[in-house]
C-alpha cells in the first residue's frame, strides 16, 4: 500500500536534508504530513469504505492518526454510521486497534456530535462502554454515563485510564470517589500521586488508606512509585488529616524506596521516638534472645517472606535518626530521652534481649547532633550513654558512628581520619569529667580513626613505591 509510510508510526523521521537545513520549517512540515494523511484516508475511505480504513490500521502503528484524519474527511451527519461500523467490525482481534482510532475520532469531534454518539440508545452496553472509554476523560462524559448508561458506570471506572492532570479540584474529587468505588486504589494513587498537592488532603488520605486494602490482582499489575508516596504523605501531614500511626504504616510498606529519597520516614521515626514499646517490638522481631534461643514464629509466612520482612525491619532500625525526646525546635529533652531508654531497656530485658537492645540504642544515639557547647554528642545523649554504660551500647555507638560516614573518597595525602581522631579526642577531653563513659567511647573512636589513618598512609607509601595510582 503506497500510503504505508504515512501511518507506519505517529512520528515520521526527518530526512537528512531537512535536518541539515537550518531554515527548515518543521511546523509547516507537520501540517503537510497531517494534510497528506487526511488525503490518504479520504482516498481509501472513498474507494473502499471502512475496509480501507481498517486496512490502514493493520499496516501501521499510527492508529490515532487514522482516527484524526477520518474525523476530518467523513461527511457531516455520517459519524454515527461510521462509529457503529467500526464498533461492529467482525475481526474481534482488531477491537483494541479500532478503539485507539475511535479515541482520536471522538476527541476531534465537536461537542454536539460527541454527545449524539454517546447518547445513542440503540447501541449495546458493550459497544457503549467502548465508546465511553474512547471519550474525553472529563466531567461531561461521566455525567452522560450516569444519565444515559448507569448500568455500565462501574465497568467504565474499572477500565478507564485515569488521567487527572487537567481536572479541577471538584472533578478530581469525583474521579477519586468513583475509582475507589471500583476497587482500584493502586491505579487511583498512581494517577493522583504526581499531583498530591493539588488534591484535597481528605481525598488523598482516602486514597492512601485504600492502598493498604488493595487486591493482589491489582498489585501484580500496578506499581507505586515510593517518591510519590512520600509526596502524598508529606501533603496530608501538613493538614494533619491522617494520624501518625497510619502514615507510619505506609512508610513501612514503602520503606525500601522512601529510605533512599528526600522524604525519609518521619512518621515512623516519630512513632518510635514517642513509644519505646514500638522499638521493643522491632528488637524482639529481629534478634534472638541473649541466650541464643528464638521465639516461635506466629505466622504462616514462607522462609523467603519472613527473611524479606526481617530485612525491612533491619533497614528500619538502621534508618532511624530521630533521638527520642527531640522537640520541634531540634533541642532534646534529657528527661524524656532517659525515660524512653529506661522503658525500652526494661521491655527488651523482659524479652531476653538486653544486649541487642543496648547495641541498637547505641547505634541510634550515634546520630546525635552536637551540643550548644560545640562538643559532640549532645549533652542529653552524653547523659544517656553514661546512664547505660554497657559494652553493648558502646559497641553500637561505635558502629553507628562509623556507618554514618558512608562512602568516602580519599585523595592522596589527605588526613581525613587524623582530623576525625583529633576532633573526637578533643571532644572526649572536654567532657571526660562529667561524662567519663561517653569520653571513653570517643577516645576509642579516635584510636580507631588514627589506626585507619596509619593504614592509609602505609598503603599510599607502598603504592608510590610500586608506581601504582
How many alpha or pi helices?
A: 27
How would you characterize the largest beta sheet? none
**Spatial separation of the terminal alpha carbons:** 64 Å
* Average pLDDT reading: 91
User: Which value, in Å, is the CA radius of gyration?
Assistant: 33 Å
Order of helices and strands: HHHHHHHHHHHHHHHHHHHHHHHHHHH
Helix vs. strand class: mainly alpha
Shape: elongated
The oligomeric state is single chain
Q: Give the number of DSSP strands.
A: 0
Please state roughly what percent of the residues sit in beta strands, choosing from under 5%, 5-15%, 15-25%, 25-35%, 35-45% or over 45%: under 5%
Q: What proportion of the residues is helical, as a percent range?
A: 55-70%
pLDDT < 50 stretches: none
Short structural summary:
Helix content is 67%, strand content 0%. The protein has 469 residues and is mostly helical.
Walk me through what this model shows.
The chain has 27 helices and no strands. The protein is elongated and about 100 Å long. The mean pLDDT is 91.
How do the helices and strands line up, and which of them pair or pack?
Blueprint: H1 4-7, H2 16-20, H3 26-48, H4 50-59, H5 63-73, H6 79-87, H7 95-108, H8 111-118, H9 125-134, H10 139-148, H11 153-159, H12 169-181, H13 185-192, H14 201-211, H15 216-221, H16 226-239, H17 244-253, H18 255-258, H19 266-274, H20 276-286, H21 303-319, H22 334-350, H23 354-365, H24 379-388, H25 391-404, H26 416-431, H27 436-466
Helix pairs in contact: 3-4, 3-5, 5-7, 7-9, 13-14, 14-16, 16-17, 17-19, 19-20, 20-21, 20-22, 22-23, 22-24, 23-25, 26-27
Amino acid at each position: 500500500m503506497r500510503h504505508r509510510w504515512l501511518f507506519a508510526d505517529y512520528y515520521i523521521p526527518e530526512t537528512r536534508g531537512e535536518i541539515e537545513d537550518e531554515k527548515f520549517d518543521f511546523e509547516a512540515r507537520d501540517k503537510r504530513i497531517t494534510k497528506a494523511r487526511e488525503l490518504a484516508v479520504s482516498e481509501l475511505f472513498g474507494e473502499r469504505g471502512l475496509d480501507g480504513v481498517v486496512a490502514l490500521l493493520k499496516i501501521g502503528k499510527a492508529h490515532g492518526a487514522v482516527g484524526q484524519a477520518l474525523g476530518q474527511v467523513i461527511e457531516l451527519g455520517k459519524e454515527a454510521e461510521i462509529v457503529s461500523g467500526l464498533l461492529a467490525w467482525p475481526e474481534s482481534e482488531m477491537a483494541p486497534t479500532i478503539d485507539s482510532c475511535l479515541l482520536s475520532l471522538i476527541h476531534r469531534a465537536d461537542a454536539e456530535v460527541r454527545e449524539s454518539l454517546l447518547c445513542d440508545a440503540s447501541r449495546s452496553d458493550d459497544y457503549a462502554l467502548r465508546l465511553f472509554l474512547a471519550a474525553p476523560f472529563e466531567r461531561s462524559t461521566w455525567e452522560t454515563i450516569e444519565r444515559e448508561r448507569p448500568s455500565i458506570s462501574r465497568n467504565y471506572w474499572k477500565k478507564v485510564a485515569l488521567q487527572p492532570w487537567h481536572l479541577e479540584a471538584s472533578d478530581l474529587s469525583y474521579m477519586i470517589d468513583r475509582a475507589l468505588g471500583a476497587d482500584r486504589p493502586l491505579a487511583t494513587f498512581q494517577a493522583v500521586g504526581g499531583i498530591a498537592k493539588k488534591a484535597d488532603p481528605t481525598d488523598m488520605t482516602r486514597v492512601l488508606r485504600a492502598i493498604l486494602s488493595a487486591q493482589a490482582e491489582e498489585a501484580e499489575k500496578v506499581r507505586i512509585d515510593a517518591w510519590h508516596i512520600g509526596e502524598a504523605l508529606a501533603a496530608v501531614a501538613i493538614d494533619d488529616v491522617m494520624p501518625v500511626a497510619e502514615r507510619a504504616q505506609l512508610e513501612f510498606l514503602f520503606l525500601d524506596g522512601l529510605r533512599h529519597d528526600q522524604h525519609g520516614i518521619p512518621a515512623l521515626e516519630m512513632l518510635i521516638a514517642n513509644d519505646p514499646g514500638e522499638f521493643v517490638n522491632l528488637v524482639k522481631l529481629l534478634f534472638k534472645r541473649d541466650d541464643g534461643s528464638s521465639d516461635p514464629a506466629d505466622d504462616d509466612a514462607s522462609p523467603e517472606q519472613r527473611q524479606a520482612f526481617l530485612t525491612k525491619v533491619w533497614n528500619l532500625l538502621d534508618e532511624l535518626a530521630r533521638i527520642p525526646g527531640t522537640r520541634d525546635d531540634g533541642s532534646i529533652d534529657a528527661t524524656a530521652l532517659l525515660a524512653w531508654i529506661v522503658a525500652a531497656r526494661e521491655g527488651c530485658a523482659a524479652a531476653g534481649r538486653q544486649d541487642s537492645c543496648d547495641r541498637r540504642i547505641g547505634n541510634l544515639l550515634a546520630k546525635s547532633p552536637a551540643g550548644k557547647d560545640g562538643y559532640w554528642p549532645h549533652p542529653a545523649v552524653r547523659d544517656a550513654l553514661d546512664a547505660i554504660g554497657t559494652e553493648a551500647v558502646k559497641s553500637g555507638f561505635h558502629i553507628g558512628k562509623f556507618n554514618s560516614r558512608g562512602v568516602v573518597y580519599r585523595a592522596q595525602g589527605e588526613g581525613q581520619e587524623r582530623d576525625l581522631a583529633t576532633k573526637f579526642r578533643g571532644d572526649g577531653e572536654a567532657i571526660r569529667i562529667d561524662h567519663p563513659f561517653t569520653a571513653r567511647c570517643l577516645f576509642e573512636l579516635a584510636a580507631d580513626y588514627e589506626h585507619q589513618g596509619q593504614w592509609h598512609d602505609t598503603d599510599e607509601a607502598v603504592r608510590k613505591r610500586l608506581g601504582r595510582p
